[in-house]
Amino acid sequence: MNNKFFRLTFVAVIVLASATAFFACKKDKHTPPTLTLKTGGIYISADATIGMNDTIIVGVTVTKEEDPLNTFNVSYAYDGATSTTTFTTETLSGNDQATGFSRDVQIITRNVAGTETWTFTATDLDGNIATKSIKLTVN
């Protein structure tokens, strides 16, 4: 009887330890920064058809959520390409890093008909990413 009691106790301890480990191992969910595109007035904030060699403004507002902000990147890809080219990358500091920032990005379209996908990305110090893209049809 002692042996049976020992086995049952051992099994109960294993089950309890497994359950505790299972529920204690939940992943931390981090909140990425908030990235929005300005609308109205001079701003382009959605997919659009634009003339060749035309100048547009995309306004970007980024707000820190959980962790301080780290970088802001603007990149583009032409005609459905899967790889992008960096237009600008900025390492943030001061108030921009601590609370957020706003930027107006001036884009001059190519003098070639096709598509341009512009991607705006903010990353915080924990590696969380917020991104928005617009697709310009240039003709």
Characterization of the model:
- The chain has 139 residues and is α+β, with helices and mostly antiparallel strands.
- It has one domain: SOR catalytic domain (Immunoglobulin-like), CATH 2.60.40.730.
- Helices cover 20% and strands 45% of the residues.
- It contains two helices and eight strands.
- The protein has a five-stranded mixed beta sheet. The chain has a three-stranded antiparallel beta sheet with strand order 1-3-6.
- Strand 7 and strand 8 form a beta hairpin.
- The radius of gyration is 25 Å and the shape is elongated.
- The N and C termini lie far apart (87 Å).
- 12% of the residues are buried.
Outline type:
elongated
Uncertain regions spanning at least 5 consecutive residues: none
* Cα radius of gyration in angstroms: 25 Å
Helix amount, in percent? 10-25%
Distance between the termini: 87 Å
CATH architecture classification name = Sandwich
Strand order of the largest sheet: 2-8-7-4-5
DSSP summary: helix tally: 2
Count every beta strand, where a strand is a DSSP E run of 2 or more residues.
8
Strand content: over 45%
The CATH superfamily is known as SOR catalytic domain
- Which structural class do you get from the secondary structure elements? alpha+beta
Order of helices and strands: HEEEEEHEEE
Mean pLDDT score = 89
Please give the domain count: 1
The CATH topology annotation reads as Immunoglobulin-like
The first-level CATH class name? Mainly Beta
Largest sheet: 5 strands, mixed
